[in-house]
Amino acid sequence: MTMSHNSDQIPTEQYHRRVGMGELDVMRGGGVLRTLLGSCIGLVLYDRQNVVGGLAHIVHPDSTGRVGPPGKYADTALIELLKRIEQKGGRQKNLTARYAGGSNMFGTTQLNQIGQLNTAAVARLLKAAGIPVLATDCGGGKGRQLCFEIASGDVTVEVLGGSPTSL
After folding, report:
1. Strand, coil or helix: 55
2. In terms of residue numbers, what domain contains 147?
3. Catalytic positions
4. What pTM was estimated for this model as a whole?
């Protein structure tokens, strides 16, 4: 099945995918990416012109040489998302970002909580890559569910126990 967009035929991936901790996924034309977040960050990158988008479930702010799934660390997740988006026909120059998560799930009062470190790392990396951030929903003490609809580019976030809101 295909849909028309900008006079190009874009294959539509008509299904839902759940993105787990340290994972990332990219879709083109359609479909839905979902994840549950606590102190982790759900980073959404979207190329509206080419209807290509991706979601990374970032667990830690920096790999510092550690090996792991490419979505686990903010620095490796951004690189891998950019690569996969380009493989699906997206372009970095068209990308916008939204992200959510970074909660203080463990009730700690330390200055450098993992949620805050993750949030700061993602913000810094997006700025360095020149990718504009359209919206964020970070912090607090509760988990969130994030849902990204590829065809429309809509991102909704639901703080656990609350109502979904557009991001």
Report:
1. strand
2. 2-166
3. 40
4. 0.89
